[in-house]
């Protein structure tokens, strides 16, 4: 298993980042919140989780170890694969996810694209004793993005999670007033997803 990757950021795409490690470019699938912290040409260290399938080897990259452990843990629930697990941590910070599961908050879980009422109830049932209580790790230091860049990142994140580009555009416009001087891409993405789930 590859526990983490450290190297120069060679490229950042809509849903992944390429880190150069010993002359090899490793592509890591990441959430928009993680991608917003990476800059091409800079060094980065990302905890990783490798998903092995018959036809593919996929590396997922994370902001921190907490995000990685939650990603791996939620996949132990039936019906939750890596794509859905990634969508869960894109929409909900690890502590928000723990809070939702521990308090039987079905509504919060259904904000994640791909999770319906029944799926949320099953996830709560299966993960309640495993996820644990909120640890209060993240949220105090939001990932800040350049004023114009956040719109692009949130839009790309929504499209990456399966929303049509036109709907994503409307959601970005809806949350624009919340951006302020130091936009928090993760929070804005979550707000945009809330807007879309109400529509």
Automatic annotation (TrEMBL):
Keyword list, A-Z: Cytoplasm, DNA damage, DNA recombination, DNA repair, DNA-binding
Domain III, as annotated region: 145-199
InterPro entries to which the protein is assigned, alphabetical: DNA_helicase_Holl-junc_RuvA_I (IPR013849), Hlx-hairpin-Hlx_DNA-bd_motif (IPR003583), NA-bd_OB-fold (IPR012340), RuvA (IPR000085), RuvA_2-like (IPR010994), RuvA_C (IPR011114), RuvA_C_sf (IPR036267)
Main location: cytoplasm
The keyword Protease appears for this protein: no
SUPFAM superfamilies according to UniProt: DNA helicase RuvA subunit, C-terminal domain, Nucleic acid-binding proteins, RuvA domain 2-like
Any Pfam family the entry gives: RuvA_N
Residue ranges of domain Helix-hairpin-helix DNA-binding motif class in the record: 72-91, 107-126
Protein transport recorded as keyword: no
Compartments, as annotated in UniProt: Cytoplasm
Similarity comment: Belongs to the RuvA family.
Its biological purpose: The RuvA-RuvB-RuvC complex processes Holliday junction (HJ) DNA during genetic recombination and DNA repair, while the RuvA-RuvB complex plays an important role in the rescue of blocked DNA replication forks via replication fork reversal (RFR). RuvA specifically binds to HJ cruciform DNA, conferring on it an open structure. The RuvB hexamer acts as an ATP-dependent pump, pulling dsDNA into and through the RuvAB complex. HJ branch migration allows RuvC to scan DNA until it finds its consensus sequence, where it cleaves and resolves the cruciform DNA.
NCBIfam families hit by this protein: ruvA
Assembly behavior: Homotetramer. Forms an RuvA(8)-RuvB(12)-Holliday junction (HJ) complex. HJ DNA is sandwiched between 2 RuvA tetramers; dsDNA enters through RuvA and exits via RuvB. An RuvB hexamer assembles on each DNA strand where it exits the tetramer. Each RuvB hexamer is contacted by two RuvA subunits (via domain III) on 2 adjacent RuvB subunits; this complex drives branch migration. In the full resolvosome a probable DNA-RuvA(4)-RuvB(12)-RuvC(2) complex forms which resolves the HJ.
Domain-level remarks: Has three domains with a flexible linker between the domains II and III and assumes an 'L' shape. Domain III is highly mobile and contacts RuvB.
Protein name: Holliday junction branch migration complex subunit RuvA
């Amino acid at each position: 298993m590859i526990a983490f990757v450290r190297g120069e950021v060679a490229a950042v795409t809509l849903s992944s980042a390429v880190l150069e490690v010993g002359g090899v470019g490793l592509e890591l699938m990441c959430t928009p919140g993680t991608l917003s912290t990476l800059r091409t040409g800079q060094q980065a260290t990302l905890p990783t989780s490798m998903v092995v399938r018959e036809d593919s080897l996929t590396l997922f990259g994370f902001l921190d170890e907490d995000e990685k452990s939650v990603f791996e843990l939620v996949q132990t629930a039936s019906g939750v694969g890596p794509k859905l697990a990634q969508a869960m941590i894109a929409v909900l910070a690890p502590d928000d996810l723990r809070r939702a599961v521990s308090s039987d908050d079905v509504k919060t879980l259904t904000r994640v694209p791909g999770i319906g009422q029944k799926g949320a109830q099953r996830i709560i049932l299966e993960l309640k004793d495993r996820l644990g209580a909120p640890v209060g790790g993240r949220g105090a230091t939001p990932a800040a993005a350049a004023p114009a860049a956040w719109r692009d990142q949130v839009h790309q994140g929504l499209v990456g999670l399966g929303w049509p580009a036109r709907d994503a555009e409307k959601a970005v416009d809806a949350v624009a007033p919340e951006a302020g001087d130091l936009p928090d891409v993760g929070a804005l993405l979550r707000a945009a997803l809330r807007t879309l789930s109400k529509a």
